[in-house]
Predict the 3D structure of the following.
Amino acid sequence: MKHKLSLTLAALALAMTGNAQALTTDFESTPLGNYSSLTFGTATITYTGGTGAFQVVSANPGAPISGHALLSYNINPGPAPFRVDFSGGGASAFSIGVGDYNADADDTHLRAYSASDVLLASDDYLNPSSKNGGDYLSVSSSSPIAYVTFWDDDPFPGAVYWDNMSVSPVPEPQTYAMLLAGLGLLGFVARRKENKSDKLAVA
């Protein structure tokens, strides 16, 4: 009986994680150059300022930025945000690394929205002027995230680097169906065990 319960719990764990694996993009396989959009899995990246163009550049200020990273400043300097739209059922969580060389303080922001433009979650990080590199901005939501925006406010807006993007998709409907089936099976096994115990007690 314990073996069956262990198998059921393992199946539930797989159901919960199988279709919701986070996709992490480090941009290393993306050629250096100018872009109007980039798509990785369910996520499409655009830039909302100026001509809408941005770059994939080589930068190594320090963790979490290394190798290829996103930058808007060289083509479209200014505080306009990058935007990432999620196809399918949306995203349940999103994170991205931001960093710079130790020239000035960088006030960075991340916002997550629903399909009807309702703010679902936010994160902010002030990167000090003394720091090479930076940190991660992260959001998550129980409601599907349709898109996120991220940007920086500082003396040279747009001059920070963005790297190591991670997207966790909303689990697909069949994942929930598997979860419900697993919970039902657990209930059935528990009832059988209880009935068997009752019969033994009566005997």
About this structure: Confidence is low (pLDDT under 50) at residues 4-19, 174-179. The longest helix spans residues 173-202. The helical segments are 2-18, 173-202.
